[in-house]
Amino acid sequence: MSGSGHCLQLDVGNSRAKWRLLRDEHVVDRGNYRPDDEASQAVLLDCAEHVEQIWIASVAASATEDALAALLQQRWGTIPWFARTAAQTGTLRNSYAEPTRMGVDRWLAMLGARERLQGRLCVVDAGSALTIDIVSAEGQHEGGYIIPGPALMERALLLDTDRVRFAEDVGYALSPGKSTAEAVRHGIALAQAGALALALQQVGGEAMPLLFCGGAGETLMHLVQPPTGQWAPDLVFEGLAAMAALQGQGVSGRV
Predict the structure, then answer these.
(1) Which residues are identified as catalytic?
(2) Is the pLDDT of residue 164 over 80?
(3) Is there a contact between 233 and 213 (Cβ–Cβ < 8 Å)?
(4) Where are the beta strands (DSSP E) in 69-128?
């Protein structure tokens, strides 16, 4: 199938999945799915009467993947295709001695970035974890970093310190905090932005374009001094579509 029908694409994490629905290669619907949330499941299963293609990028456990695949196949009679990290996909080459140990979300985000840009680049995926990956102009993964994301950092403080408690909902900024809430949130912002700045110093070379994705990606993009980079929230989906095309699955996926 190419250029017709519905294609359901899912980016499955440890606790939830993001999904988008394409029709004739254009995004027509999107949402979030949690296995323990009947309402989100109903929305997902009602998104289309017929789905001809189902593509999944997953970092979840095998049992979670199996349950999701069974649910989707029962609903639409379509066998899902799972993207997997490889030693090489197209011109993108993996640096890991055991390529499958790299999360497929990182791999697909890099693949999606290379669909957008030529030359050396950096992918910054700020979700549960902050991942920073460098790709050479030739497509070689030069290495990367995995750092606890904002929610994990905050949770660690709350779990392991008795006196760090607050009820205020404050945003992330780089200025010194003047309350416990501000000190925590601003400290996390400083850690995230500082880690990215130091990572870019470590990899050296000329300044390169940054592509940001993930739930906290846009916030981090605006914290970087000076602000730089592109906000690409669908980068994993774009990589999923690129890999599917390379492996003969069909639809490309334009917004």
Answers:
(1) 105
(2) no
(3) yes
(4) 81-82, 88-89, 92-93, 121-126
Report the CATH number of the 6-82 domain.
3.30.420.40
For residue 245, the SS3 value is helix
Fold identical between 6-82 and 89-233? yes
Q: Return the CATH fold of 89-233.
A: Nucleotidyltransferase; domain 5 (3.30.420)
Q: Is the CB of residue 149 less than 8 Å from the CB of residue 156?
A: no
Confidence of residue 156 (pLDDT cuts 50, 70, 90): confident
Local confidence band at 250 (pLDDT 50, 70, 90 cut-offs):
low
Strand partners of residue 8 = 21, 54
Task: Break the chain into its structural domains and give their ranges.
Answer: 6-82, 89-233
Contact 174, 189 (CB under 8 A): yes
The structure tokens listed for 71 are 């649910």
pLDDT, residue 160, reads 63
Interior angle at CA 92, CA 90 and CA 96, nearest 5: 130
Q: Helix axis angle, 62-76 relative to 38-45, nearest 10°?
A: 50
Q: The whole model's pTM is what? A: 0.91
Q: In the chain, pLDDT over 70 holds for what percent of residues?
A: 92
Q: Do residues 217 and 126 lie in contact, with contact meaning Cβ atoms separated by under 8 Å?
A: yes
For residue 252, name the pLDDT band (cuts at 50, 70, 90).
very low
Of 109, 122, 95, 51, nearest in space to 242 by CA: 109
Q: Are 135 and 114 in contact (CB under 8 A)?
A: yes
**Residue 234 and residue 231: Cα distance in Å, rounded?**
9
Q: Could you please report the per-residue DSSP string of 214-231?
A: STTHHHHHHHSSS--SEE
